[in-house]
Design a protein that fits this description.
This protein is mainly alpha-helical. A hairpin with a 2-residue loop joins strand 2 (about 290-295) and strand 3 (about 295-300). The chain starts with a strand and ends in a 10-residue tail after the last helix. The radius of gyration is 21 Å and the shape is globular. Helix content is about 70%, strand content about 5%.
C-alpha cells in the first residue's frame, strides 16, 4: 500500500476516486432512472393536456435535428439553443394560460420533487464514498438509504429550496443570452453558454460542496453541517472554485459537443464526478487521511497546520 501526501491536486484525486468507485456511478444512474420514471408516471394523469401543448409548440424544424446537432457535428448549435428555448418557454406559457393548476403541478414535480429525490440519492452516494475513503468498506445503496433517511431528507429539502433561486437565475441568464439578436454573436454563443453556465454552476457548487460531506462525516443537523462545510470550502476557496469550474466546463462541452441526446450518458457521470470532488475537497480541507484507490492512502496537511486552534474543534 502506498501512503503519500495529497499535494492538493483535487481534480486528479477526484478522478482517481471516480475510477476506483465507478460502481457507485452506475448505482446512481439506476437511481436516476427510477426517479425519472416515477416523475413521468406522476405526469401521466395529464398526458392529454401535455400532448396538446407539445404538439402546439413543436413548430421549429431545428427541433427535429436535435439528435444530430452538436459542436463536434458542425451543426448550427446557436440555432438549436434558440429553438429549444422558444419551444420550452412556449410550452410553459401555454400551460399556465390554459391549464394553470396543471402547470403548478408540473412545476412542483420538475423543480421540487425531482430535485428533492435526486438530492436524497446524492447524500446516499456521499455516505457510501465516506465508508470507502475512510476504511475501504463496501456498503449497499438501499441499506445506506434506509440508514441515512432522516439526515438525507432534511438535507434534500433545504438544498432543493436553496436551488430554486439558483435555477431561476440560470433560466434568466439563458433567456438573456438567447435573446441577443445579433448574427455575429451566433459564432460566439456556444462559448458564451459553456463558460457562462460553468461559472454560475461553479459559484453555487462552491458554496454548497462541503454541505453533504460535513453532514455525512460528522452527523450533525443540516444547518450546523452547512456551517462546517462552508468553513472547509473557504480554507482554500480558490482551488475549490477552479476545480469545480474545470469539471463543469469539461462536461458542459461534452454535452453540447456530442449533442443533447448524449446527456443521458454524461449527466450521470457528471454527478458522480461532482460527488467524488466534494468528498476529496472536504477530506483534504479537514486534514483527514483517505483511500483514493485500493493501493493509495493520501495524507493531506493536518488542519492544525493551516488553521488556528478555534477551527480545529471539528477535526476527527
Amino acid at each position: 500500500m502506498k501512503i503519500s501526501g495529497e499535494k492538493d491536486m483535487m481534480f486528479k484525486n477526484s478522478l482517481k476516486l471516480f475510477c476506483s468507485n465507478f460502481d457507485k456511478v452506475w448505482k446512481y444512474f439506476f437511481y436516476m432512472l427510477i426517479v425519472s420514471a416515477l416523475t413521468i408516471s406522476l405526469m401521466m394523469p395529464f398526458f392529454a393536456e401535455i400532448k396538446t401543448i407539445v404538439i402546439a409548440n413543436w413548430t421549429d424544424e431545428m427541433l427535429k435535428q436535435i439528435p444530430s446537432t452538436g459542436l463536434l457535428y458542425g451543426k448550427e448549435v446557436a440555432g438549436l439553443f434558440g429553438a429549444i428555448w422558444t419551444f420550452t418557454s412556449g410550452c410553459f406559457v401555454m400551460m399556465f394560460k390554459e391549464y394553470l393548476w396543471i402547470g403548478v403541478y408540473l412545476v412542483f414535480l420538475l423543480f421540487i420533487l425531482f430535485p428533492f429525490l435526486m438530492n436524497v440519492g446524492k447524500y446516499v452516494i456521499n455516505e457510501m464514498l465516506y465508508n470507502y475513503m475512510s476504511s475501504q468498506a463496501k456498503v449497499g445503496f438501499c441499506s445506506v438509504m434506509v440508514k441515512t433517511l432522516k439526515n438525507s431528507t432534511s438535507y434534500a429539502i433545504l438544498k432543493t429550496l436553496m436551488s430554486v433561486i439558483f435555477k431561476a437565475i440560470l433560466i434568466l441568464a439563458i433567456f438573456g443570452i438567447v435573446s441577443i439578436n445579433e448574427p455575429l454573436f451566433d459564432y460566439f454563443l456556444p462559448v458564451v453558454v459553456i463558460v457562462g453556465l460553468s461559472l454560475l454552476i461553479s459559484i453555487e457548487q462552491t458554496f454548497i460542496s462541503g454541505w453533504a460531506p460535513a453532514s455525512v462525516i460528522y452527523g450533525f443537523n443540516v444547518v450546523k453541517s452547512y456551517k462546517i462545510g462552508i468553513r472547509a470550502v473557504f480554507r482554500r476557496y480558490g482551488r475549490v472554485f477552479s476545480t469545480s469550474l474545470v469539471i463543469n466546463i469539461i462536461f458542459i462541452f461534452l454535452i453540447f459537443g456530442f449533442g443533447i441526446v448524449a446527456s443521458a450518458v454524461f449527466i450521470p457521470v457528471y454527478f458522480g464526478m461532482i460527488n467524488m470532488f466534494e468528498m476529496v475537497m472536504f477530506f483534504g480541507s479537514q486534514g483527514m487521511r483517505y483511500y483514493v484507490d485500493a493501493d493509495t492512502v493520501l495524507t493531506p496537511k493536518k488542519l492544525e497546520q493551516t488553521d488556528n486552534i478555534q477551527k480545529t474543534k471539528y477535526l476527527l
